């Protein structure tokens, strides 16, 4: 250990008492190899004592120097001569205690007090902007405050009795791992140190049921992070840049506010127009794409404020860019029944033994359809990559079968089932699910919310080909199935009518 740090400068920082356990849990683990030309810095609790330390090293990523945390922690004797005081506070926010709860991370900065009224915020492009001009922060330090009004405005909200909470989606953590997690959360920590106000942060790190615009994120917050106080949604508000405006990357923030019943604002309404990126270095300017500040935006730079302090900013046209579940409600109302379930008559062909193939895009409700209508009739479901023996075995026992598999989606692939049906003289029908990809994506998220399942990545819709079944293929009958929901209870029903995240890929029309 001592060799490793010989002739290196040690930077020393105070850490909070409660971070000690994190450090000690990792004690002794070495999962990265060191190279000699790195600069090391050490976060320590005290000088001149045997203490546990966390080591960070400087390295170069895409030509940009960054600090990376190592996984090495150990006990080391620090000598006060090794400490470079001039570097104190370089990155103090590593000292913040982030609490991990499953895929969520949260942090209480300066002891935020529970309140029945919440002012919630998105983080990226709402409270901060990048310094590089890139749409997303490229490094831990690639951030600057949104503009000079932020701190004053946050202070004012606190004085008026709101609790300030950052709700941020950091799904990249799931994909990119621990280093990314440290980088993202340290950036938030740096921001908190900068504004130095009592703020709570909840960060979602996976594409699971807590990701905005999910109401479960808010549910978790209300249950565990607000001193058991219920939130008054009418008095609460949420601010975010993802509002589905032209040029907005996504709609998540607007949907989140709608789903939890909060008043919604875009950052421009609260803080005015953001400062343009102050590009980090000349080198970066050449390397990275610069976000052009449009002429019209420059004109809008000075905005008027109303008497409540909000800026008179026109949000303009927004679009949810996803399936509107209320259209289903509209259809149900028209049909004057609570649930527009299919009738036996509509689905049955009056056949003793048969094969049914379900054809439709991923997550459009095929398995649920089977469970609702064919499970009780003793049809066997063969799904995913079932083995072909199970198919013939079941047919030889006079059983009926529903096949829900990728193998049913194209004419070429499903030909095998038609051949088998022919050879055994058993009728075969195709049920074609007319659901749009947008509806399927809504059902995909609905399943994540209600069954704790994993979101099927949206790329699946792009790579999956669905060919509408034709009678000429040899089917006895083709039934077109429009989506009709059946809900087990009112809670599941109300969740269905909330907004879900749109597809994040572009489909060829
Ligand atoms: Mg944002």
From TrEMBL:
Residues 1-81 form the BRCT domain. InterPro entries: BRCT_dom, BRCT_dom_sf, HAD-like_sf, HAD-SF_hydro_IIIA, HAD_sf, P-loop_NTPase, PNK3P, Polynucleotide_phosphatase. Pfam families: BRCT_2 (PF16589), PNK3P (PF08645). It comes from the Eukaryota. Gene3D superfamilies: BRCT domain, HAD superfamily/HAD-like, P-loop containing nucleotide triphosphate hydrolases. This is Bifunctional polynucleotide phosphatase/kinase. It comes from Anaeramoeba flamelloides.
